[in-house]
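2-C-methyl-D-erythritol 4-phosphate cytidylyltransferase, pasting as requested.
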Amino acid sequence: MNTRNIVAIIPASGVGSRMKADRPKQYLRLLNKTILEHTLDIFLSHPEISKVIVAVSPEDPYYQEIDLLKSEKIKVVFGGETRAKSVYNALKCLSTNDWALVHDAARPCLKRSDLDNLLQINDEQGAILATPAIDTIKRANGLQISHTEDRETLWHALTPQFFPAKPLTEALEAAFLANATITDEASAMEFAGFHPTLVAGRSDNLKITRPEDLALAEFYLTHQTENNS
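Structure tokens follow.
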């Protein structure tokens, strides 16, 4: 029996400029719900997750329109100017013994099986979902190829990313003080000397970033719904 208190953190304060939409991408609609609502449903329905904290922008005019955010299981906080700052603001709501499960707001296609596999990890180093690189990866110098990387050792980082709250908070604080570049929670933990575990996940756990991703996400969500019906 898992006795850890697990809190999901959803940073949702970005504007998603690459979507070229009239609102942040998490508020675009797929299958009659916003992307954010699809994402939240994954965590609200999971029995091991006690609470969901959503970090929104202080200038966000849309989040109050989402009835799901009024759930007793959800707490809304204001995020910062970066993803890392938004996650840090959410972490302030956690107890030192909690575990933080951080997931992108624009990844609505996460499968329960991948989430369950990640939650099996009980190592203090933490863990992330990831997929092995399958394409040939080029290192560039400007727009010219410098060399080809060995893809056998390369993985694409996904979310959720799963860490004890206290060391993750301390790792982010240390990175902020050093002005280190933090692109995800794992990079903060790596900066602090940790070596998180890679948990192989599904490639359909895509992050909606560009307009063409919407059709693909709709396909995946429709397929999931059909399989569950």
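Note for the archive: Residues 60 and 217 are 24 Å apart (CA to CA).
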